[in-house]
Write a structure and sequence with these properties.
The chain contains eight helices and 13 strands. The protein is α/β, with parallel strands linked by helices. The strands form three sheets. It has a six-stranded mixed sheet, with helices on one face. The protein has a five-stranded mixed sheet with strand order 2-12-3-4-5, with no helix packed on it. It has a two-stranded antiparallel sheet with strand order 1-13. The longest helix is centred in the first third of the chain and has 22 residues. The termini are close together. The relative contact order is 0.20. The N terminus and C terminus are likely disordered.
């Protein structure tokens, strides 16, 4: 017996043309062991880094937005996912933006990444959206959260599949306004997860929507790791970049925060972005983590997205 794991497709896009044969030939991963329960179809992108008014050239900005808009809309029409998660750094200059610039940012994002009414798109905050931990103000956090209807820690459930989203910058655990709120919310979600494993112990109010299954952890930063040397994906970083040591709290989550999240949430899978390069890591506790490449051609010559088909049930396999 095992929890049915998600199956993956990572799709790369050509620099010159935003849609390629890969998109047209690729289909959702399938599993011959799938039961009558319909799998949840999820699309992940990360680090769109829409340019603002401070950096870059207007022509570069126009080209990158056109590339990403065409690629995204084509992918959505071809694959028809149910859920789409944008794993942080939607904007390149969100933390420096005036109200006018931020509203323009949001308008552009919602235009380029618009989805039909039967598809849900969720945005997870990144450091370029509101800043790294010590530069975040309550105003910057609330501004992003209000527009994208999110918070420091959230849980999203669909057909027995549960996603826990995390604000990576709120994981410093130093008692600041951001970390304190995240800690309370994380403890609440942890209680709900435990309650759903034993329905007799808790009230219905504390139960998850649907049956319990190990959640999937989503955030902008990768979990703690020394560097990217273990990454051997087609879209992994160049060797010199993979050798570069990661700085805790800047390039990846702090080690103590990683231990806490894995203990409290007990995820079966972890997805993130931030590095702009693809990676697949298996942690010592057996949890698999996937880093999604930047979706912006400005950051990577072969940007990509990932399709994941997930079921929340446990099935029997006959060997």
């Amino acid at each position: 017996m095992y929890p049915t794991g998600p199956e993956f497709y990572r799709l790369d896009s050509d620099y010159r043309v935003p849609t390629t044969k890969a998109e047209f030939l690729c289909n959702w991963p399938s599993d011959s062991n799938i039961t009558s329960e319909q799998p949840v179809k999820v699309m992940f992108i990360a680090d769109t880094h829409l340019l603002g008014t401070r950096k870059g050239h207007w022509l570069d900005k126009m080209i990158r937005e056109w590339e990403m808009g065409c690629a995204f809309q084509t992918a959505v029409k071809l694959h028809k996912p149910e859920l789409i998660f944008v794993l942080g750094d939607l904007f390149d200059e969100g933390l420096w933006s005036s109200e006018k610039d931020f509203n323009s940012y949001v308008e552009t994002f919602k235009y380029l990444f618009s989805v039909p009414s039967d598809i849900q798109l969720y945005a997870i905050v990144g450091n370029h959206d509101i800043g790294f931990h010590y530069s975040i103000t309550p105003h910057l956090e609330k501004r992003f959260n209000k527009v994208f209807n999110t918070g420091p820690v959230e849980i999203i459930s669909i057909r027995n599949v549960h996603f826990v989203t995390i604000n990576s910058m709120a994981m410093e655990m130093d008692g600041c306004f951001l970390c304190y709120t995240a800690k309370l919310k994380l403890n609440e979600i942890s209680k709900r997860l435990k309650c759903s494993q034993d329905e007799n112990k808790c009230s219905k109010k504390m139960m998850l929507d649907g049956n319990y299954s190990k959640p999937i952890l989503l955030q902008h930063f990768p979990l703690y790791r020394k560097n990217d040397m273990a990454c051997n994906e087609p879209d992994s970083a160049p060797l010199k970049e993979r050798e570069k040591p990661f700085r805790e709290g800047l390039d990846c989550l702090r080690k103590d925060a990683t231990v806490k999240l894995l203990k409290v949430v007990q995820p079966r899978l972890v997805f993130g972005g931030h590095t702009h390069h693809g990676c697949h890591i298996k942690h010592t506790n057996g949890v698999h983590e996937y880093s999604i490449s930047s979706f912006n051609w400005r950051n990577k010559y072969n940007p990509s997205y990932m399709l994941v088909s997930i079921m929340g049930v446990i099935i029997n396999l006959l060997n």
